[in-house]
Design brief:
The structure is a homodimer of 258-residue chains. Chain A has 258 residues and is an alpha/beta fold. The first copy, chain A, has helices at 16-29, 44-48, 60-63, 90-98, 106-114, 133-141, 153-157, 159-171, 193-205, 219-223, 231-234, 239-255; strands spanning 3-8, 34-38, 74-75, 81-84, 122-126, 144-150, 179-188, 210-216. Chain A is globular. The structure holds adenosine-5'-triphosphate (2 copies) and magnesium ion (2 copies).
Chain lengths: 258, 258
Amino acid sequence: SAIVVAVGNQKGGVGKTTTTVNLGHAFAASGVPTLIVDLDPQANATSALGFEKKPGAGIYGPITGNGSASEQVQATRSENLWILPSELDLAAAELELGGQPDYLLKLRECLSALKEDYGLSLILVDCPPTLGLLSMNALCAADYLLVTLQCEYLALEGLGQILGVVDQLRESGANKDLKVGGIAMTMFDNRTRLSYDVWEEVGTHYPQLMFSTAIPRSVRLSEAPSHGQTIFEYDPAGPGARAYRNLADEVLSRFFPQ
Amino acid sequence: SAIVVAVGNQKGGVGKTTTTVNLGHAFAASGVPTLIVDLDPQANATSALGFEKKPGAGIYGPITGNGSASEQVQATRSENLWILPSELDLAAAELELGGQPDYLLKLRECLSALKEDYGLSLILVDCPPTLGLLSMNALCAADYLLVTLQCEYLALEGLGQILGVVDQLRESGANKDLKVGGIAMTMFDNRTRLSYDVWEEVGTHYPQLMFSTAIPRSVRLSEAPSHGQTIFEYDPAGPGARAYRNLADEVLSRFFPQ
Ligand SMILES: Nc1ncnc2c1ncn2[C@@H]1O[C@H](COP(=O)(O)OP(=O)(O)OP(=O)(O)O)[C@@H](O)[C@H]1O
Ligand SMILES: Nc1ncnc2c1ncn2[C@@H]1O[C@H](COP(=O)(O)OP(=O)(O)OP(=O)(O)O)[C@@H](O)[C@H]1O
Ligand SMILES: [Mg+2]
Ligand SMILES: [Mg+2]
């Protein structure tokens, strides 16, 4: 049955969506059947993969108890890669979930049937930039949290907070199997001292968690979503594609040790 | 009485905090008494101004009905500049506010007494990267929304959404005086075509709203918060300080027409 990886960090703009979409494609390209779940009301992963946001077509219905998740899954252009899109109404889910029993387990329930579908090996969940009920649902559905960390000072500040939430969810029993899968360093700019300082800081405090592949800052990565393409379609021979391919190999060998 | 400006955008990492802190200092330096309210549980504006996050010292108490906002205001090192800090507990406010009557007007009530204090002319509110109850409170307390827009494709996608929310709040009567004060373009990188494309796109659709000063991408701006300094303390003669000084002049002439 598929493993679930939440790609999260409450700090905004740190590469969660870019990592979800490009890692997902890299996994699929190496033969690992992968589903991307867009749990952000901004629906950036949905449009980065070339899909329109359509009311009623996405995770909002299933997570609020209307219909099944698997009927909302769509195939992408790439083999072995599927998407469960988002829509603007998902922003309302934060308020709607609040009053319900088991409000932290709604996504977990949605995904439990999916894990056996499509022959999936991996489900990646793109989280919004908060620690609200949507992100908490992702963490309660996940086997691993993958933190993306921009090589900047303000991003470093919030790292302890999200790692602390994982401990709380595990210890409270909301998700006793949740582990931190790793920290992926993004937007590494080798022209700035700041990037090296942040890299060293994370390497000192979390050496076991940090993946050794740095995703470089590359304008191709920020151009690709405007064409609805992943980096492997838009600039397959460039530094962004190379880095995400290497990161994918690292993540697979860590989560699926042979 | 002071005017209130919410600095917001649900897209993460688009320069909301960097703009709030540096615009605030620029206003103060030109003799405009300014208060910065950190309404983000990440408390980035608090640490960027050199303050520690301390439980009980911040906006969380007042916005949930405990104590007054004005007793939480602290003076910064800079003349004419004060801060109302944030703290981690503020994340709980989203859930706590949900059930109360007038839950959208809590911040407005907190700030109404403050407007007459300290001889303030301007209150800047740094918003979290969502359209949840904290950001909605900021919009309901504000005279103007200042949108910061990173010169990237994914940031452009969300612009219509936040502008739409302003219309809804105005038309529903939650805040009938709310106006969009302007769009400040941030992290403009003159080496990439993408920045020019986004600039042109916004200029075509929102010519009246867009400020003509582009904030350039500059590593000094992302280094300054690690020293708890604004750009005017850290690199006063550099391109970041020049741009924020120019933007401050534009904003003041638009909001306080002589
Ligand atoms: N390695 C990179 N090099 C250059 N640009 C990048 C890189 N990774 C991401 N970006 C760009 O930086 C911006 C932020 O990235 P992204 O949207 O993936 O972050 P996020 O954490 O998902 O944001 P949010 O918090 O809003 O969900 C986007 O415009 C994206 O295109
Ligand atoms: N003009 C700039 N040049 C270079 N770096 C910048 C610039 N403006 C902001 N940054 C850096 O980019 C990152 C994102 O900026 P910032 O944190 O201000 O955005 P934000 O919108 O407040 O993010 P969040 O959505 O998490 O609240 C930070 O690390 C910041 O230091
Ligand atoms: Mg995202
Ligand atoms: Mg911020």
